[in-house]
Write a structure and sequence with these properties.
Blueprint lengths: L13 H30 L3 E3 L2 E3 L2 H14 L1
Antiparallel strand pairs: 1-2
Length: 71
């Protein structure tokens, strides 16, 4: 049995799989940001970036981007 690696199982196309993964990751990020916004609004638990509370979509996105770049 051979393994194709990271190819799309239905087409064998690596690029197509990468595009699907990227689309899925974008959707996951949007959901996570929405959830974080709701959590903050409902329970006063916020992300803090440089001493500033992240309340908006853009602020939360920027916070997550900075954290990812630091890692």
């Amino acid at each position: 049995m051979t393994r194709q690696g990271h190819t799309d199982p239905t087409t064998g196309n690596v690029e197509l799989r990468a595009e699907r993964d990227e689309t899925l990751i974008k959707k996951m990020l949007e959901i996570a940001i929405e959830e974080l916004s709701e959590i903050g609004a409902e329970s006063d638990i916020w992300l803090v970036d440089d001493g500033k509370i992240c309340r908006t979509h853009k602020q939360i996105y920027t916070y997550l981007k900075h954290r990812a770049l630091r890692r």
